[in-house]
């Protein structure tokens, strides 16, 4: 009876290893992520502490150990897919078994397991963390409202650009070489004087723009009419005051 009680107390002490990791971690592709792992043992940590990290791919396949720490020495992976991409950043004397994974890729998605043993405390359960690697920056998630907004915004933007382009083309026709030859009466009294021809002057840039915009707004087909009239217009002679 007493022997059983002693054995249960001893086994309880040596089975007190507690290992913990975050349930989920996320990182952008190409970035560095720290796979955190901490442990607590009823026995003081020594050089006998051993740490193993294993990985199970998200798309299936067997789990395999890729990192080992023992005797205060870290043994990084020497084979693909983690070769040259794992660094030891933990401290076994402080209960830290964390490692860093460099230059993450989509193939790194999966479950990472941290197992720690501190003889004679070797019966603690390992801890697991799920790593999600997103393809650059934050993953884009479109809601129904966002999709609807895009479907409405794109056609309206294209329509606006087409109208602006049409207006600019018409303005260029009006305000280019042809627009420089436009004439308006300098004075209504002189223009209406019987027996005298109207006096003309060159339009200013401001007047050209206003004239083009007014013509465009009044008749959307003015540009075709303008080109047609330019081809068939007869030259107008200027008169002197």
TrEMBL record:
The keyword Transmembrane helix applies. Residues 12-132 form the Ig-like domain. SUPFAM superfamilies: Immunoglobulin (SSF48726). It holds the Pfam family V-set. Residues 1-16 form the signal peptide. Keywords: Disulfide bond, Glycoprotein, Immunoglobulin domain, Membrane, Signal, Transmembrane, Transmembrane helix. One of its GO terms (cellular component) is plasma membrane. It is a single-pass type I membrane protein. It comes from the Eukaryota. It is found in: Membrane. Belongs to the myelin P0 protein family. PANTHER family: MYELIN P0 RELATED (PTHR13869), MYELIN PROTEIN ZERO-LIKE PROTEIN 3 (PTHR13869:SF20). This is Ig-like domain-containing protein. It comes from Albula goreensis.
